[in-house]
Predict the 3D structure of the following.
Amino acid sequence: MDLEHLLLVGSSHRTAPLDLLQDLSFSPELIREHLPGMREVLDLDETVILSTCNRTEIYAAAENERRAAGAVQDWLLARAPGESGISRENLYTRFGAEAASHLFRTASGLESLIVGETEIAGQVQDALEIARGAGTAQGFSTRLFSTAFRASKRSRTETEIAAGTTSVASASVHLAHRIFGDLSRRSALMIGAGETGRLVCRYLAHHGIGKLTIANRTTHRALEVAGEFGGEAAGLEGIEEILEGVDIAVAATHSPTPLVTGEMIQSAMRNRSSRMLLLVDISMPANIDGAASSVDNVFLNDMNDLKSIVQRTLDRRSREIPAVERIIEEEVACFAARTAAMRAGPIIKELRQRYEDLAGAQLEKFSPKMSEEDRAVAARMVRDLTKKLLHWPTLELREIARDPEADPARIEWLRRLFGLDKPLSGKGDG
Amino acid sequence: MQLSPISWTTDGGVPGATVYIDPIDNGGFSNTIFPFLNGYVQNQHPLVKGSNTKKFNMDLVLSILRPAIPVLYAISFVNYLVHFVNPRNPFGKASTPVLFGTAVVHVVYCVLLGIRFDHHPMATVFEILCVVAAALACVYLLIELWRRSRSTGVFVVPFVLILQIASAIGIAPSKEINPLLHDTLFGIHTGSVALSYAAFFLCAIYAVMLLLFHRALRKKSFGLLFERLASLATLAKMNRGSALVGFVFLTVAIASGSAWAARAFEAGWLNPKVALTFVVWLVYGLALFFNYGLKWSNRRVAIATLVGFALLILSSSVVNAYLAGWHSFAE
């Protein structure tokens, strides 16, 4: 299968609002269910469906890719509920190298809502695995997606496209990491056990925080989060005492009044020698008194500071886009060359078979006149000679296959030259 | 340095090339290279005759290492720079092994210099620069491997490079050497001094970085330094660790220097430089005591170590320049 037979039909956050996009989304179970029938009905050779929160894309290979693209579009729109406002205008279609390039960009995070996010690489891998399980992804799709994974891996290792933090919660922990380095011997206090608090706890646990305490207005909620991340639970009244012993304190609550006052900080710092204390306030409104920032060895950061860290990450990732695009260009070219070279596969196989058959026939013919030992030597000689004779024609065939502008008549000419269009028993076969 | 040209011609009488060789090691170079040229050289130059083969081989090695070591440090600096800009770059990841290899070669070079010059290589300013550069590279590697943080190498290796270039330009055997320089105790003293100066220099670099990091956190300036430097806690540990290493070696240097000087100089050994060195020792000692004993903040310790380093510079430059006593051993 050639690259030119590849097609992509899809819709993403760039072409449709998220509520419309939901009408096109597929669960993994639904994809498994649809894939075999879809390939049959739409006359596709291979197909893979990638469906995430921000995109639904169908990659397919078909003999007539233009006609197949129209059929895939109709099929996709027919899956949306009747009242859905999604239309053909929300879809995009790509062919050949452009489709491959889009897949590589997607796997590398360039098409993501947050540029450089890495979760998409796993989702692309899952999409291929589902299609392979359903039997709709074979050699071509496997090679295409494998190259996409390689492009994604190269992008992450050779550039900084995936470096840094992109959420306020992860930025809080990043800040702690930049101040304290290894967090395994540090302790943290999480004030608030809501969604943001839980997310911060997840990042802290991921960075191996030594000790984690979750303080919340309702203790049962604190206990729940503490249980999830192996921490301890406490009520809000214990904050002042806990502050004396921790290195990091993050507040993420909706309390209308500050839960951590300047006096609490000053009192806590008096009892902790000169140990540094990082305070992060991601509450709305602020829950840590701004006066804390003037206390020696205390570093107070609020939502705006964290947003500036996130923005810097996004800016840095944007600067890496050209480097990632270069990698993608290289990988697309490499995939195209390898796919083209495989076009020569059948004729090379045919050529080898023809020569081996001829050699076998000749050996058979002369074997009665040879001893057992001579026959073995002659067989080896004929085999080696066949390999040597076919070396240059094989290279030439691969070269012709790789060249997109090569005249297809050259391959036909080579077939005639080596007598592949004639039966083995024809004149000259000896 | 005055270089002497030697010309030769090939067997057929065609002019060959001219080599310029250091008069100190001219015979060595010739005796080593000429057999290699194997008959292509008319070995008639007066400088070539009557030389000691054993010494000359070492001269060849030294003449190769002299320019090679700065080149290796330059490569190492580029490694660290690449690593600082993009920690994922494989060229940058080679920074530690390259510096380690260079430091090993540098130490061997110092030992060979000592053997070749037949005294501890601390007689002239160029020899001192060479030994201090090697000590700086070694202490830095020690701290880097201890803290597993190579992000500060980009600020340290350039200084090693500059010191070594300066040394390579001017290094030559001294005409007159104080015979006391052959003393083993003096070797311990000078080696300890070099290591302590290197450690304090490193300590000052970490102190500056720590203060910059501290300032960036206060000013909420989350730029390249904030992202690339070692963490604040790591910088503090590096600052204290290098201060401790320097303090220990300075203690050894003062003890061995005092013992040696008491034996060598009957008239007494206290001069402004020695007095100021005691003050430096005291400042670093107090900084460490206040940090470990009284739990001073990282920032205060960093400032104290910078004060100590300023006094160190004063003792080794201003005092040397204007109050030069007997604390020099060669002409």
In short: Residues 4-48 of chain B form one domain. The interface with chain A takes residues 86, 88, 217-218, 220, 222-223, 226-227, 230-234, 295-298, 300 of chain B (CB under 8 Å). Chain B is about 70% helix and 5% strand. The longest helix of chain B spans residues 184-219.
